[in-house]
């Protein structure tokens, strides 16, 4: 690799690192945010719900814009937007303003991620060199996700929760300046294309209305007319979206792709994985800090070994597993570990928050299950699909993961404080997480792949 190529790879990798970090980093800072603004657990979860919904909803649009407007333009635009929203979030005087900036952060991440990947694949054109570059790029995303909890806990304890957001600013400023200098100028496509932004906006609007409606089901007797109107609007929006996708010459997503068995299986698996894992991290952070009274720093340090375990599993254990098992069997193994982790978390909450059981749950989920699930589901999503459709199939799969995270949190919020146990999180919420994982496991058993 030349020096310039190395710099470009570092720029793209740091961009994806920050984006991946911010998904996890907020979790151990949630109790501090909750105390600062005087919020309930089901309200503060909107910080994560809004981020993942807008991230997932605009991910495909981000990829299309990267192709149409140019990789450099969209990458820098996303990075600038992420920087500005990080500043806004760090200095937010009210929770409403904080939630707004957090939502726009999700939109910025949806621009950064596909543009960064496109930069890497177009910079490294030789097959072996490209494979190595993508592996390095992906490892930064994995490290960002894995270390987010630990870093977030330390920052929230010693600097204050605001720095969970403000820490992005100097990093992104350097990335933007270097990207401006080193990335090649964008080349306009020979054929003018117009991304289907309207479909993307309708999709995001439907998902936000659906999430809010689910969140408010607990007070249905008071707001039944509003909920009825919301769900009717969601139904009409989805009908409009289906007709638009079928009529457009260059739709946001080709509906024929969504009928392929591998994509259907991958979408269902990713939806439930997102619902389970996002909810698991959220519940775990509240249990450790609000109920077990660990500081954010202590909770973060407690989880460091499992981030290391995840990296070791990806490097040494997973390749051997995938040689011995089919890709579907590998996915089933990963989801079995998620079910086991959910059961252990539930039992620990029934046993007065017995720490060894909680750590075993984290080992199953963070250390083993997530690495195995995410990798196998990614491969499942493109199984038997022509290579020219890999990009779209991968984007759809990742979109479904984040949408599952947002919708799963909305459902989970209905059960967070049920049961009157006096704890900040009810045991019933862990049961809901187990249900997500069990449905995901059943989905993998029921659905069949074409061979």
From TrEMBL:
The chain crosses the membrane at residues 7-31, 43-61, 73-91, 97-121, 133-155, 161-183, 195-212, 224-241, 262-287, 299-318, 330-348, 354-380, 392-416, 428-446. Its main location: membrane. InterPro entries: MFS, MFS_dom, MFS_trans_sf. It comes from the Bacteria. It is a multi-pass membrane protein. PROSITE patterns: MFS. Keywords: Membrane, Transmembrane, Transmembrane helix, Transport. Residues 8-450 form the Major facilitator superfamily (MFS) profile domain. CDD domains: MFS_MMR_MDR_like. GO terms for molecular function: transmembrane transporter activity. This is EmrB/QacA subfamily drug resistance transporter. It comes from Pedobacter nutrimenti.
